[in-house]
Amino acid sequence: MSDIDRALLRDMLRVRRFEERCVELYSATKIRGFLHVYIGEEAVATGVMSALTAEDAVVATYREHGHALLRGMSARLVMAEMYGKVTGCSRGRGGSMHLFDKDLRFYGGNAIVGGGLPTAVGLALADHLRKRDTVTVCFFGEGAMAEGEFHESMNLAELWHLPVLFVCENNLYAMGTALKRSESEINLPMKAASYEMPAWSVDGMDVRAVAETARRAVDSIRAGGGPHFLEARTYRFRAHSMFDPERYRDKAEVKLWRERDPVDLFTAVLRDEGVLDDATLQVMEAEIAAEIEDAVQFAEQSPDEEIGDLLRFVYSPTSTAAGRPS
Ligand SMILES: Cc1ncc(C[n+]2csc(CCOP(=O)(O)OP(=O)(O)O)c2C)c(N)n1
Questions:
Q1: Is the CB of 191 under 6 A from ligand 1?
Q2: Ligand 1 pocket, residue 141 CB under 6 Å
Q3: Which of the listed residues 113, 186, 238 should we mutate to test ligand 1's pocket, taking the one with most ligand atoms within 8 A of CB?
Q4: What are the tens digits of pLDDT across the range 1-14?
Q5: Could you give the 3-state DSSP secondary structure of residue 68?
């Protein structure tokens, strides 16, 4: 198996297994608050991230555990954040929806639909003005395209010719609202193209296709091609969040998409090519399981924030230098 294929498979499996464990821990009330998992969509972040360098910037949504892990955040930091522990990447104050790491240039984790788009345009503008050879990638769901921020961001990115890759993870539903019920035009690249930027669509269940298309887009942006839009057609296999009774889509549809599970599809391709065998897969699975269990143990054993520190980083007109109201 080539190093590239090994990395793509490993990355998708890591995200899948990490989140399956999160679902279990959520049911066991170890993880609290909201939890939106990415299960079914792994090929998108995996493929796109494979086209980036460490200098590039990444902005994601609240369905971002996979993006954070793939960007290089350790499973320990992510899991501790899920647990609300002080050792988490946001000191346990953000939880599942607010993973963030400035050194990795991973800027969220955004709870606000569409909120990442202007952030990404701002980051790209700053890099552009500093003449840095970087690309900012912004992941968002198709639900964000109904927000005014989407249109403002697309317009300014093109007007200023900024190095941004807009990646729309089109899983067909924004919570319980089907795309076709909320948008008059559901050809998403066409909408983006109306802002005069190159706009492409890719099968988001095929990790090689995503990686290749993302590579072309990123190369074109780096060569001075300005912003690009990429729609990845995908599907979330589980509910919107842990609180969603999922009454808006029928089981047959979910079953049909599950037959195109990106992890299974890629495993089958590699087996057909004769480059992946059971033993290799088992070793990979065992390494991933060990990494995740280590992260769970780390989170379990980590301390909560000290009560005396709770007002640190909280701003108010009455704050003192020590961060406590007088
Ligand atoms: C501005 C704003 N409006 C509404 C919400 C409530 N909300 C949370 S998730 C969501 C659906 C977003 O769907 P989409 O962007 O397609 O992403 P997906 O969940 O499918 O990944 C909505 C409406 C919100 N968080 N922010």
A1: no
A2: yes
A3: 113
A4: 999 999 999 999 99
A5: helix
